[in-house]
Fold this protein.
Amino acid sequence: MKCIVLMMKAAVFDNSGTLIRRYRALKNLKTGKICDRMNSLDIVDYRDRRALVVLQTDPATCIVNANPDQTIHDFIKRNRIDFDVSYANTAVTADDIRDILRSDPATVRDIQDTIDAVSSKDYNIQICSGSGFIVNIDRQMVDFTITAGGKLFPEVPEVVDELKDRNIHIYIASGDRRGSLRELARIIRIPQENVFDTADTERKAQIILELKQRYSRVMMVGNGLNDILALREADVGVLTLQQREPVPQRLIEAADYVVDNIREVLDIEF
């Protein structure tokens, strides 16, 4: 069986901005303003040492119905909510996050405000990263709360089905929360075990390396800086610009191919 698997190929996709058109709402806790024009990864990298934290719970039920006046720390503790660091520009642990939240005044309402902003645009929170926050390690505080929703790019079902017909195994490696990726896997009909959730930059690269031990060729398709190491490690790295967001030159240079539409993946020989 192992020899048969090694003759096969795998395609690994990021989710937000790659398989789905993502819409983010961020609340600046210093000004109280909500913005949808900023990229959360760029904000993490902009200054200081920051980390993007994803809450492993359903925003549309658990967070929306929570007491808005409780702190994020109390909400997580009382409801035993798991969380993971989706992206960071510094080494940070879960205990570091808990220590910062313990004395931080940010409330559930700050997260609910971003949920309301995404819901008003009619984006599906269930297939995206959901809700979380950006924490400033140096200042020991939450700088932003965030919610992201998405809409499946219309070409995605065709692309996935065609790759399956070519006997290419489909995987998802994304920084998005577990529940949203399970729902996406159901929609595009791939096995749940082929989904790697809340994967940061290093973990995505490790996933590619692990799959290269099992498959003859591995393709990585992504759109953001958290995909850069995976693009480099893959036999074929594909950067997609369909999200229509600016990308740094080093990300373009990490890819073997740059495409404007996910459907162009079908034209790549690998």
